[in-house]
Amino acid sequence: MTPSADQPQMSVEEFEELARVAPETVTLEFINGKLGVKPVPDGDHATIIMWLVRQCMQQRPDLDLHPELELTVEAYRSGRARTDGALAPVGHFAGQQQWSAPEGVLMIVEVTSFDRDADARDRKEKPLAYAATGIPVYLLIDRDTDSLTVFSEPENGIYQQHPTYKYGDTVPLPAPVDITLATEKLKDYAH
What we know:
Elements: H1 12-21, E1 27-31, E2 34-38, H2 43-59, E3 63-67, E4 70-73, E5 79-82, E6 85-89, E7 107-111, H3 118-133, E8 137-142, E9 147-155, E10 158-161, E11 164-166, E12 170-173, E13 179-182
Parallel strand pairs: 7-8
Antiparallel strand pairs: 1-2, 3-6, 4-5, 6-7, 8-9, 9-10, 9-11, 12-13
């Protein structure tokens, strides 16, 4: 039987206990009832996140991009995602628990890793989980295709818009983010 939100591999509580005791070299997620292992970021991955942090701070100093934030996702908050970045108003996550609620998050960022699960995890499962949660924008920086996909307008659990741009393009992030990314620098990190 394939795990799903209706027939999960384990309960959310069991997942949280497993994630609590997992070694630092393992990053666990629980999306659509399935346990997933997310690779530890490499140097280019971390550098891309810092590139994005700087662009966000310059254009929207009223917002913080929180790297590696843990969020409850999916309907009824039955999923757990370790995001590469979560954009929210300054101070938004103060006082929240380890697995933060998604309300108030304006954008989620994921940067693909070079592993066999990236396609299912970052391109299929996470857009559905983030849209179901109502997060307005999901930015996927795809290192396999040297592109950025901007998912927006979540409706009925699906992002209605998802244009893709190549590294070097000017990338507009829609409201409520309202940031324009100059992506020429990403070419330096292409493989």
